[in-house]
Amino acid sequence: MQTVLRTTKRLVLRKFERADLPALYSILKDEEVNTFLPWFPLQSLEQTEAFYKQHYLPLYEQGRGYAYAVCLKADNVPVGYVHVAPDGSFDLGYGLKKEFWRLGIMTEACRAVVCQAKEDGAAYLTATHDVNNPRSGAVMRRIGMRYRYTYRELVQPKNQLVTFRLYQLNLDGREERVYQKYWNASAVHFVEAGL
Q1: Which sign does the torsion angle of CA 77, 79, 84, 85 carry?
Q2: Which end of the chain has fewer CB atoms at under 10 Å, N or C?
């Protein structure tokens, strides 16, 4: 995990801290924000602290991956998050409080993470979105990702069958590379024409 903060015109991307738990809770408790995320909306600050300890602290302690709070420069309070999974998928994920939707904030944050990943020598990033959440796919396209394929997966703990689109951005110039893990794991996979 990079200790150097990433900044953009409007944003600071930094590690979450314990003092951020109320802000993180305000993001993760919102049902609309969490509609397309794999976990259920959180119900308390205690659940938020457990989430923080499970999803953020191990990455910070091991120095692996990117797991940033997305904050406005004006007040440095988290309004969203962006992360890259440290496994072989290098899956880019993000979430944003709904009052900040449609302002280009997540595109700006994700571009900063792409720059950081490229500077650090990452070969590629992937990202997936539920086909029922096309705005997430629009963020992926705006940061230069290309659609590769569609697949179905039973998502836990919600126990929902979801059709995902996988996007990929190859940072090392190897445009022919396609991350195959989800394709191979899914009995239902295909390439949609025109995407």
Answers
A1: positive
A2: C
Kindly give the interhelix angle for 105-119 and 134-142, rounded to the nearest 10 degrees. 50
Angle between helices 45-55 and 21-28 (to 10 degrees): 100
Can you give the pLDDT at residue 163?
98
Q: Report pTM.
A: 0.93
Give the tens place of pLDDT for each residue, 146-155: 999 999 999 9
Alpha helices in 7-158 (DSSP H): 21-28, 45-55, 57-62, 105-119, 134-142
CATH of 6-190, one of 3.40.630.30, 3.40.50.11210, 2.60.40.10, 3.40.50.300: 3.40.630.30
Higher confidence at residue 135 or residue 3?
A: 135
The tokens describing 119, both together, are: 């500077």
Would you say 29 and 42 are in contact if contact means Cβ atoms under 8 Å apart? yes
* DSSP element (H, E) containing 185: helix 181-185
pLDDT at 30: 94
Q: Residue 5 is which amino acid?
A: L
The residue among 92, 89, 189 whose CA lies nearest residue 149 is 189
**Cα–Cα distance for residue pair 89/20, rounded to 1 Å:** 28
82, pLDDT greater than 50:
yes
